[in-house]
C-alpha cells in the first residue's frame, strides 16, 4: 500500500531529486535546475509529495499579490510543477495539489494562480481559466515619435526602489497585473540566460517610466538583425510613454522587431501612426479561489456601484467554501456574510473567471457553469464588469 507525505524538502538527497525532476520535466540542463532548486529552497518555497519515501512530485510557490479592481489581493503563484517519470499517470500531481491547496487555505491565502501545461489536472482541483497574457510585436521603424522632452539614462542599482514604486503605481491601474515580489523582479532584471539592460525616464516628479530590454539576434534573413525583447515597460505619464517609444525606435538601424508582453488593450499602441504591430495570445492563466469570503472582500469594485448578490457555491476539495454567501458591494468595497437565498449557483471553478471578470455571468451560464435568475445575472454582470484581466509576467 502506498503512503503519501507532503511538505518542504528535508535534505540534500531530496533537493537532488527535485533537480532531476525539473531537468526531465522542462528539458533544462541539470546545472541550471540545481541552481533554481537551491534558490527556491533558500526561500522556503518548494513543496514535494513523497510516495513511499521517494520524491514523486514537486512545485514552487510564489508569494505576491494581484491587482483586481485596483486593490492588491494576496496571491500564491505556482510554478515548477513536475512529476517524476516513474510516478506519472498515477495521480501524484493531483494529490500534491490537494495537500498544497489545503496548506495555503489554512495559511489564509485567498487566491492561487498558475499557467497550465495541461488544464484537466488543474480543473480537477478547482482552477479555471481566468485571464490571458498577450505577446506584442511592433516594427521598430514605426516608433519614430519625435519625443525627447524628458531625460533618459541607464538605470542604476540605487534606482531599484523608485522603479518598483513606479511599477506598482502603474500595475494598480491594470486589472490582473501582479503586485510583484522578489521572485518576479529577479525574472525581470536577470532573465534566464540573458542580461537585461535598464533605462529610466525622469521628469519633474522623478522616475516617470522605465524599460528593461534584452537584445538577441534574429535567425531570419541573410543579414543578421536584432530582436529587442522587453522584460518590462512602464510609463506613468504620456510624455514618458512617448519618450520610451522613441528610445525603442532609436534601435531601428539594428532591430526590426520590438516585443513585450501585456494585455490585448495595450495603451501604448494607440500612440502609433499606423497598425504596424501584432498582438497575439501567448497563454491563458488559471485561478483557484481558496477562500471565497476573503477573496471577494479583498478585491476592489467600481466606486459608483452598489448591489447584493446571493451566491450558492460548491467546492468538493475545500468544504469551507461550500454554502450560501451574500456579497454586498458599496462604495468600491465588498462585505460577505454567510446565508442568503443562493440565487446564483456555481462551482468554485466557475467563480474564478466571474471573480476576475474574464467571463460574464451569461457566458458562464451558456457554458453550463452557473445557473441563476435574470436579476442575479444582471447584478453579477454589473458588479464584475471592467477591463479584461491580463498578466505581463510569466512564472
From TrEMBL:
GO terms for biological process: aminoglycoside antibiotic catabolic process. It comes from Corallococcus coralloides. Keywords: Transferase. Gene3D superfamilies: 3.40.630.30, SCP2 sterol-binding domain. Pfam families: Acetyltransf_17 (PF17668), Acetyltransf_9 (PF13527), SCP2_2 (PF13530). Residues 1-144 form the N-acetyltransferase domain. It comes from the Bacteria. InterPro entries: Acetyltransf_17 (IPR041380), Acetyltransferase_Eis (IPR051554), Acyl_CoA_acyltransferase (IPR016181), Eis_dom (IPR025559), GNAT_dom (IPR000182), SCP2_sterol-bd_dom_sf (IPR036527). One of its GO terms (molecular function) is aminoglycoside N-acetyltransferase activity. This is Acetyltransferase. The lineage of its organism: Bacteria, Pseudomonadati, Myxococcota, Myxococcia, Myxococcales. The keyword Transferase applies.
Amino acid at each position: 500500500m502506498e503512503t503519501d507525505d507532503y511538505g518542504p524538502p528535508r535534505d540534500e538527497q531530496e533537493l537532488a531529486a527535485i533537480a532531476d525532476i525539473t531537468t526531465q520535466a522542462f528539458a533544462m540542463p541539470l546545472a541550471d535546475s540545481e541552481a533554481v532548486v537551491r534558490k527556491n529552497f533558500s526561500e522556503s518555497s518548494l513543496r514535494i509529495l513523497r510516495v513511499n519515501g521517494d520524491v514523486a512530485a514537486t512545485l514552487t510557490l510564489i508569494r505576491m499579490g494581484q491587482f483586481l479592481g485596483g486593490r492588491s489581493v494576496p496571491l500564491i503563484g505556482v510554478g515548477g510543477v513536475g512529476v517524476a517519470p516513474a510516478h506519472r499517470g498515477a495521480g501524484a500531481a493531483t494529490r500534491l495539489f490537494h495537500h498544497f491547496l489545503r496548506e495555503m487555505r489554512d495559511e489564509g491565502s485567498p487566491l492561487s494562480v498558475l499557467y497550465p501545461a495541461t488544464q484537466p489536472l488543474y480543473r480537477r482541483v478547482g482552477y479555471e481559466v481566468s485571464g490571458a497574457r498577450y505577446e506584442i510585436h511592433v516594427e521598430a521603424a514605426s516608433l519614430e515619435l519625435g519625443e525627447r522632452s524628458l531625460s533618459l539614462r541607464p538605470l542604476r542599482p540605487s534606482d531599484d526602489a523608485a522603479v518598483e514604486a513606479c511599477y506598482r503605481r502603474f500595475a494598480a491601474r491594470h486589472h490582473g497585473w501582479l503586485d510583484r515580489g522578489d521572485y518576479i523582479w529577479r525574472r525581470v532584471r536577470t532573465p534566464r540566460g540573458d542580461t537585461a539592460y535598464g533605462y529610466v525616464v525622469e521628469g519633474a516628479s522623478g522616475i516617470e517610466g522605465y524599460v528593461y530590454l534584452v537584445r538577441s539576434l534574429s535567425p531570419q534573413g541573410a543579414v543578421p538583425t536584432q530582436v529587442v525583447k522587453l522584460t518590462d515597460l512602464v510609463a506613468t505619464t504620456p510624455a514618458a510613454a512617448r519618450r520610451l517609444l522613441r528610445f525603442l525606435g532609436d534601435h531601428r538601424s539594428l532591430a526590426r522587431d520590438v516585443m513585450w508582453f501585456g494585455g490585448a488593450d495595450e495603451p501604448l499602441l494607440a500612440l502609433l501612426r499606423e497598425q504596424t504591430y501584432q498582438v497575439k495570445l501567448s497563454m491563458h492563466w488559471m485561478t483557484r479561489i481558496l477562500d471565497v469570503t476573503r477573496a471577494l472582500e479583498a478585491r476592489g469594485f467600481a466606486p459608483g456601484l452598489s448591489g447584493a448578490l446571493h451566491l450558492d457555491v460548491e467546492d468538493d476539495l475545500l468544504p469551507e467554501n461550500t454554502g450560501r454567501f451574500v456579497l454586498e458591494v458599496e462604495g468600491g468595497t465588498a462585505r460577505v456574510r454567510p446565508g442568503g437565498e443562493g440565487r446564483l449557483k456555481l462551482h468554485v471553478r466557475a467563480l474564478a473567471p466571474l471573480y476576475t471578470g474574464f467571463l460574464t455571468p451569461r457566458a458562464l451560464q451558456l457554458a453550463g457553469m452557473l445557473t441563476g435568475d435574470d436579476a442575479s445575472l444582471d447584478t453579477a454582470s454589473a458588479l464584475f464588469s471592467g477591463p479584461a484581466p491580463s498578466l505581463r509576467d510569466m512564472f
